Amino acid sequence: MTKSGLTIAGGVVKITDLVDDTYILDGLVATGVTFEGPAIITFAPGDHVIDGCKWLSGLGGFDSLLWEVEAGRTHITGVVGLTNATLIDCTFSGIGVAGTASALHTFAQTIESVPND
């Protein structure tokens, strides 16, 4: 069963601590949360709101955050899937994003990547 309807405000959270055995978070609403990895997430189909969020890019720079998968692939083992997520003023540390080339291009235009040492 998919974990759904979780709301979090503030604090530091390991994103992998939020998932059950499906690795899907449906309807996550997070404001001012720092999500920590290591982890890879993907934005599964649904309505997503991402506003004011920052991804700490680490030593590899922005490109190290992005994990491209071929279009049409339906499953990615070991990846946390977000559906219908609302993420406001959150920070992501040690978390990459998997998706198609098109999805990653859209994602890259909506977020701020911040180098961290």
Verbal overview:
- Helices cover 9% and strands 44% of the residues.
- It has 117 residues and is mainly β.
- It is globular, with a radius of gyration of 13 Å.
Short description:
The protein has about 120 residues and is mainly beta.
Strand content: 35-45%
Q: What is the CA-based Rg, rounded?
A: 13 Å
Order of helices and strands: EEEEEEEEEEEEHE
Mean pLDDT, to the nearest integer, reads 88
Shape designation: globular
Q: Total number of helical segments?
A: 1
What structural category arises from helix and sheet content?
mainly beta
| Head-to-tail CA distance between termini | 38 Å
User: Major beta sheet, specifics?
Assistant: 9 strands, parallel
Identify low-pLDDT runs.
Answer: none
Oligomer: single chain
Characteristics of this structure?
44% strand, mainly beta, globular, 9-stranded parallel β-sheet, single chain, 13 strands
Set out the fold topology.
Layout lengths: L2 E2 L2 E3 L2 E3 L9 E3 L2 E3 L2 E10 L5 E3 L2 E3 L9 E3 L11 E4 L2 E3 L2 E9 L1 H10 L1 E3 L3
Parallel strand pairs: 1-4, 2-5, 3-6, 4-10, 5-11, 6-10, 6-12, 7-11, 8-12, 8-13, 9-12
